[in-house]
Amino acid sequence: MGKNLLVKGMILGALAGGALTLFDHDTRKEVKYKVKKINSRTTYYFRHPSDFVAEVRNQYQAASTMMTRQLNTASKFLADMEVLIEQSTKADE
What string of DSSP letters covers 35-61? Predict the structure, then answer.
């Protein structure tokens, strides 16, 4: 039962905090701008679903390429560290 109250309390607190921040004019203006931007993009993608699929594919390819590069860098780093450890061990003997 405690978990249910915790989650409910967190959600209500987040909603109350979000509502309180909207008293600030600049925050309201920024939220209004972002909601319009999201609405515009959503409407565009509903009308052009092939563009949405292409965008998702491009984002996936970019993330995949970045991950591959990072994994290769990490693999090279680990191989270099292994060589250094072996050299250090041989020098100690």
Answer: HHHHHHHHHHHHH-HHHHHHHHHHHHH
